Amino acid sequence: MIDLRALHRELLARHGPQGWWWPGEEPFEIALGAVLVQRSRWEQAAQALAALTDAGLRDPAPLAAADEDRVRELVRPAGFPRSKPRRVQALAAWWAGRAEAAAEVDDAALRRELLGIDGVGEETADAISLYCFSRPAFLCDEYARRALRERGAVVPGSYRAVARALAPALEEAAFSVPELAELHGLIVEEGKLRARPAAPAPRR
Length: 204
Known about the structure:
Helix content is 65%, strand content 0%. It is mainly α.
């Protein structure tokens, strides 16, 4: 079983504190970003968020009620113009009607509700649970899988299988919610570092 506390210490020493890592100033903005960034780069998602903000559609009720064609134009920078407008409006409709009450339900029930929203898969549900509702969640994304494999862990193929395999290590680590948020940020920073091309060797 991998020692996730050791992984946290290693990455913290390398990258420094990340804090409450996910970009965004308030929960719905963070949740919107989590949907918009699916299969896109963060720069693209940020452009779409900025367009929604400029149009007065970054709050849940106005976004849920907006014309879909209008939303499509605004979120076009994030790609997938057929599905993403529908998905951000589904998230907005759920948020407007359920977010306040959902804050009172247990972690598993909240995750089930999130998974019932069009376009919210397991990774996005975990991101929203952690960063918007301060619930304990470990994002088993590709960055995390790579970090685990590089440290000798056997990593299953599916998101759900990875989550099941990590459950004992997470229980052993007993992270707080802020530590889980920081660990995800550290893992992303590590993944970005690994993805950067090596600097060319100096000429001699």
